[in-house]
Amino acid sequence: MSTQPTPALSRSLWSRLGTREPTLTRGGFLRAAAAGLFATGAAGSLAACGAADSASGGGFTYASILPFDTLTFIPEMMGTAGGYLSDQGVDMKVEIARGTAQAMQTVLAGKAPVVRPSMIDLATARTTAKQPLVAIGTVMRGPSVVLNYAKNDALDDPTKLVGKTVGIPSKGGTSEQTLLLMLTDAGVDPDDVKRQVVGQSPSTWELVRRGQLAGFISGIDVSLIIQSQYDDAAALDPGKYSSIQSTTQIYVTTEDAVQKQADKLTGFLSAIRASMQAVIDDQSRAKSIQTLRKKYHFATLDDDAIAKRAFDVYVDLWTTQANGRKLLETDQEKWVAGIEKLQKLGYISGVSKPETWMTNDLLKA
Prior knowledge:
Elements (H helix, E strand, L loop, with lengths): L10 H5 L10 H12 L5 H13 L4 E5 L9 H8 L2 H4 L4 E5 L3 H9 L5 E2 L3 H9 L5 E8 L4 E6 L14 E4 L5 H12 L8 E4 L7 H5 L5 E5 H10 L3 E4 L12 E6 H6 L1 H20 L4 H8 L5 H4 L1 H16 L12 H14 L20
Parallel strand pairs: 1-2, 1-3, 6-7, 6-8
Antiparallel strand pairs: 4-10, 5-8, 5-9
Helix pairs in contact: 4-12, 4-13, 10-15
């Protein structure tokens, strides 16, 4: 087993940079997502009154799907550690939810004005549960997860996954969504690829080395750690094969909050945009890394080489495919096309006026 750092990541990532759970069909996937996100029909009325209550309160609560121990949250962490949020008068408190479902429910209940899920999470909420959620900014313009695999069994093309088992961190979550959409867009029937729920950590790599998994989906941080430790590790970038925009990450709030908390949300988005721009301008990333280390400490941030690689990958995700759009600005044409393609593929149904599910009005010029 090699413990020498690998000199480079796979080309696709760099260019943008055990109990088996039942296999989900497209219909089953939709039902599972809807059941997980919105367990009761009462959430709509709860959201309406909750948002109004929070509008009059002080502070700003950010509903996070994960703890701030991953560089996925560079914009939010820079906003805090770099003082960009306080510059906008935003006193941000972070409420850690147990995944996307709970975080979105926190926003619907009015306990927090903003959450950062994927586009498909919002699409499912709007079509299946009829929830009044709206996107107010696009953070990641491509998938923020990758498929880790061993070089001796190269999975550098989705068609090579047929008949194999892929590890996912949870059933119906963003990672599985990304995998299913990549397979569908590549012409592969998702039912021909088995999925098994596994831990999203470097230790899962051992299951790949033993041949128990063909590969597993993880966040970029975990993949970078694995590739720094094992020279037989590589990663497939789903964005190379999928043109679907639904795996982009977006800031989401309620329609009610857009009206009643516009100033707070505008201040938050302005701070996040300033944080992102500061990182972009810091081409060596050294100053940005040191800024985060004043407040945060975790594996990928504490390693200079991995942190630099991660910053580069995330900056690319913020800026590629922007088509001239400013940071956080959502491309309405691509947004509508992505929603309509999801419906055509059968992942959602009942789409009506998807252009009203997003707005750039809270972004300062």
